[in-house]
UniProtKB/TrEMBL annotation:
One GO molecular-function entry: DNA binding
Protein name (Swiss-Prot/TrEMBL): LuxR family transcriptional regulator
Pfam families: Autoind_bind (PF03472), GerE (PF00196)
CDD domains: LuxR_C_like (cd06170)
Keywords for the protein's UniProt record, in alphabetical order: DNA-binding, Transcription, Transcription regulation
Domain annotation HTH luxR-type: ranges: 177-242
Originating organism: Peteryoungia ipomoeae
Protein origin, superkingdom: Bacteria
Matches recorded under InterPro entries: Sig_transdc_resp-reg_C-effctor, TF_LuxR_autoind-bd_dom, TF_LuxR_autoind-bd_dom_sf, Tscrpt_reg_LuxR_C, WH-like_DNA-bd_sf
Amino acid sequence: MNINHLLHFLVVADECRTAAELIQELEKLLRAYGFDYYGVVRQPKPNETPMNLLMSGRWPEGWPQLYISKKYVLIDPTIRHLGQAQMGFRWRDALIAFRSDPHRKRMERMLADSVRYGLVDGYIFPVHGRTGLLGNLTVGGKPVDLSPSEMSLFDAVAKKAYWRLLEFKHPDLLAASQKIEARMTRREMEVLNYLADGLTSNEISKILQISNHTVDWYMNGIQDKLNAKNRQHVVALSFRLGLVT
């Protein structure tokens, strides 16, 4: 393959003035590499429906409905592996990582279904922020072999496409997240992440080796910055704004 297609996208993506222009350039790149299907997806927040997470994409007719109706998201090996991946990986490599998983047979049925819909193989590239996994770019269709250099460049393409689409389609999420993150201290972000994990003030104080009173002081500061009514509201807003995942 010609990596100039990848380099070209990384340059022109910053020049696109609309989401439609950006998507056109992205799809041109993917066609050049032989990928028939793709999705640029946000990481789900509480109570979000799966279809609302897709910022751009093209899938085989009927596949999204089947995927949702069979609840494949719960056992999809690519999604499960995505949570611990730092770089892009091939779909089939994800299944290898779950060789002894109790849901292995259901995973194999999901992959057999995907092949019937033309999704024979593909790749998925995670997009991370300061607070963890934010979304991904997944591409697939017929088998395509990517070199290590191309994998690295596709990682860059995933990040560029994700952030530019978020800027075009969800400027409120982008602006709010950036504004609040800039105002949060490192310690406040630590407390916030532990709070989102369901820990109590006492448990957080033991982990951070500070007093309960100090934890509550940080909690009050976070609540003020988010204009939240209570701790439950803090957690809900944090997920919605992408501060925690």
